[in-house]
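Provenance and format

Records in this collection were gathered into a single text stream. Each protein contributes a sequence line and a token line. The two records reproduced below are adjacent in the stream.
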Amino acid sequence: MKIIYLMSGPDKVNGFDEKIRNELKNDLKGTKSLTFIVSSPDSFAKNDMYINGNGQVIGVKNFLREISEIETFNILDNRVDIETGSKFIQSSDVLYFLGGDPFEQIKYINNNGYDKLLKEFNGIILGASAGAMNLGKISYYSKDDDYDKSLFYDGLGITNITIDPHFDINNGEQFNEALTNSKGHEIIGVPNNSAIRICNEDIRYVNTCYKFVDGKVDIINE
């Protein structure tokens, strides 16, 4: 059974929001293996730090160990060849798409031919920040210091939901960008402590999210 989480990701010190943690704990029961899909395939030290932690960052792996029985953790980056990477995906119960640069992540996945395997994957998929953005059929990048204009781009098509992670309703620029760009594209603003859980046709929102459609916004709080 495929279950997808779209979220901004855990706090680097405190981990996942309590409600998200409880949802994940229930869904991760019985899972034993997980593969991290990075956004910077050549930044080995950065990937290891974010996954394993250091003195300042706890590490995503440690947060997941607190709420699951996962024993095997693989990292999909340029340290592994395509054959090994494909085996990682096929043998995993859980895939975790890390945050970072969404365009580098998409490029890495497509150039190595992992996109088809990822679409066929039938386990649990966790998307954090850029990783969650890339799971959409149509993905959305809200303008920031790196890009002076918001844009839509082709995602992996694992879900039809387009999100704006790290959404802050009090950030006027981010709010107005979502409002303007929702004319023709539905955008879901997902704050740091919120998530969207998708299981087949069932979509549930963990904590408050914001739905932008045709230049209007609705608050979703289930």
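Adjacent record:
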Amino acid sequence: MAYENYVPILGTIMNISSGNDCCSQMVMLRTDEGTVNFLITPQTQVMDDRQLRIGMRVAAFYDSSLPVPLIFPPQYRAQLITMVGRNEQVALNDFDRNLLARDRSLQLHISGNTVVRTANGQTFHCPVGGQTLLVFYTVTTRSIPPQTTPSRIIVFC
């Protein structure tokens, strides 16, 4: 699966309603820029198999290469959605063997406290470099590129 076109939107779930059919849901997020709606379908990958609830802080990723309706508030089809903790940031990117993001937006430093799992929740025992990673972190340096020690990494094999 190609993740390079995935764009995250961070926000808090304000409302969850039925979609166009029994298998989809419309999730309304409150973001710093306003309200955004996401369609959650059976193809949407929900990390950690968590039940979405009002008040949760999430990052919903949409595929920027797909067409979207020109309506307000914006409405996207969620490809991936994950829960995000308070003051936590999330990045989805390809990282090289030196743990530098492909777009040079983030440099990782793995610690013994960093939890590394696969997308299906299994422990990942190999080096994480050279993989597509979903990275959860709280602070970065002000250097270029910013550097961080993530609290959790999900590896997309």
